[in-house]
Amino acid sequence: MLNEFKTFIARGNVVDLAVGIIIGAAFTAIVNSLVGDLINPIIGLITGGVDFSNLFIDLSGTDPVSLAAARDAGAPVFAYGAFITAVINFLIIAWVVFLLVKAVNKLKDATAKKEAAEAAPAGPTELDILMEIRDSLKK
How does it assemble (predicted)? Predict the structure, then answer.
């Protein structure tokens, strides 16, 4: 059973998945910084300084000053601002991943075309064939 486990771990798919998860975690930190430090301030500027992450509805009737104060007091809140922030983060992450996949696919297509062109046997050109037909017709 130990040998089977070693074989399973040594497979390329498992190693690729582990690398993907590690890079994904590092990428998450970059995207969180992009959203929190660059995108949200711009959105706040456009919306007149609204910080979505602090928007909430108090369900307890105690009227806390901020979301943090409500959570510290244990008051039930409907934190729709955090949800809006999560949706914005998701959309930005999805867009960045889309652009990355698109770039990788473009690179793969270019590489495949180059390899196909190099692998294709050098046959006669269209001009060579036309000249051969002309010569045959002259006979």
Answer: Homopentamer.
